[in-house]
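sorry to bug you again but im stuck and you know this stuff better than me. what follows is a protein written twice so to speak, once as letters and once as C-alpha cells for the fold. mainly i need to know what kind of three dimensional shape the backbone takes. anything you notice is useful, everything is just below:
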Amino acid sequence: MLRNEQRTAMPKKPQPPDDLTKNQTKEPSKLKHQQQEKMDPQAPPRRKQPREDPITVQQHENQNLSTALTLATLGTREKVQEVEQERKTRKARRRKKENDQKYHLKGEDCLEWKKTLVLLGFLFTYNSKPFDGRLSCKL
C-alpha cells in the first residue's frame, strides 16, 4: 500500500471543467463525424432512418399473435428442424476442415512422412524375408 505522502505525490487524472453542459460535449463528436464525411467523399451519404410510430400494447400483442399464427400455419417445426440440421452439418464441415488444416503436414515434414510410409509399405508388402538392412530404395 502507498503511504499518504506517496499518494499525494502521484499526479491525478485531468478532469473536465464542470461548466460544460451535455450539448457542448456532443458538439465535438458531431464535428468529428462531419470531418470524416469530408475526408471520404466516395462513401454513401448517411441518412437518418425514419422513426416508427409508437404502437400500443394491444397492437403489439396482435402482431405477436399474427406472427405466431402464420408461423404455425407454415409448419415451422419442420422448418426449424431443417435449419438446425443444416447448421449442424455446416458446423461439422467447419470442424473437419479445421482439423484437416491442423494436422496437415507441410514442407519437409510431409516429405519425411511420405518417405516413411513408402518404406514401411515396401517392407510389409514386398519383403517376405525379414529386413536385413540392405534395402536400396530411391524416392
Remarks:
- Residues 47 and 139 are 66 Å apart (CA to CA).
- DSSP finds five helices and no strands in the chain.
- The chain has a mean pLDDT of 66.
